[in-house]
């Protein structure tokens, strides 16, 4: 977690499975440790959207980074290149359902 100057926040750590219950527990702990409105960005794990909403209600600016990789071309590694797809809000909402 990164903090700006004058931040009254302290971080949180949680080790668990990639399950909703663990995401909810982590976000609940984090919400108890920070003060004021925060900005939070997570990976695209679908459990985070609901867990963040329940823990922070409307007191957060939340985004997810969802990477979509194109098929590798000959001679390239598994994680290259990124596709050129630009996601619409409808496509992102469908992923969260």
Map the helices and strands:
Layout (H helix, E strand, L loop, with lengths): L19 H14 L4 E6 L3 H10 L3 E6 L23 H8 L1
Parallel strand pairs: 1-2
Helix pairs in contact: 1-2
Keywords:
97 residues, alpha+beta
Written overview of the protein:
The chain is of the alpha+beta class. The protein has one domain. The chain has helices at residues 20-33, 47-56, 89-96, and strands spanning 38-43, 60-65. It has a two-stranded parallel sheet. Strand 1, helix 2 (47-56) and strand 2 form a beta-alpha-beta unit. The radius of gyration is 16 Å and the shape is elongated. The protein starts with 19 loop residues before the first helix and ends with a helix.
- Kindly state the percentage of residues in helix: 25-40%
Query: How large a portion of the residues is in β-strands, by DSSP E?
Result: 5-15%
- The poorly predicted ranges are 1-6
Shape designation:
elongated
Sheet with most strands? 2 strands, parallel
- Round the Cα radius of gyration to an integer and report it: 16 Å
Query: With helices defined by DSSP (H or I, 4 residues minimum), what is the helix count?
Result: 3
Estimate the mean pLDDT confidence. 78
Strand order of the largest sheet: 1-2
- Tally of separate domains: 1
What is the CA-CA span between the terminal residues? Answer: 27 Å
SSE topology string:
HEHEH
- Going by helix content, strand content and strand pairing, the class is alpha+beta
Tally of strands: 2
């Amino acid at each position: 977690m990164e903090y700006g100057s004058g931040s009254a926040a302290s971080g949180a750590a949680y080790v668990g499975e990639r399950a909703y219950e663990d995401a909810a527990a982590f976000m609940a702990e984090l919400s108890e440790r920070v003060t004021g409105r925060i900005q939070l960005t997570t990976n695209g794990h679908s459990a985070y959207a609901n867990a963040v909403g329940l823990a922070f209600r409307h007191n957060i600016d939340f985004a997810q980074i969802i990477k979509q990789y194109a098929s590798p071309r000959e001679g390239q590694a598994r994680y290259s290149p990124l596709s050129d797809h630009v996601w619409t809000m409808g496509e992102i909402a469908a992923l969260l359902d």
